[in-house]
Amino acid sequence: MHSMRKKMRSGGHTYSNIQNGNASKIIENLQPDFKNKLIAQVYPFRALKASREELHNYYRNDPQKPFRKSFIAPKLKVLL
Prior knowledge:
Blueprint: E1 11-14, H1 17-30, E2 41-44, H2 58-61, H3 66-79
Parallel strand pairs: 1-2
């Protein structure tokens, strides 16, 4: 478990109850492929606020950061 697990959660926003149910089911179906419990959350869309400037394009701008290599890249690999 990484140290930012509680602060930097993965999540998705949905625009309808149907999308919410579908997204939750996908996470549930993916769980058996992972040793640790998936912590991704599904939220109803309300409004967006911009993140801090230093976090913009984090994945692309800092490819050698340990968090990116250890946690983001493996998640993207599963999705692709």
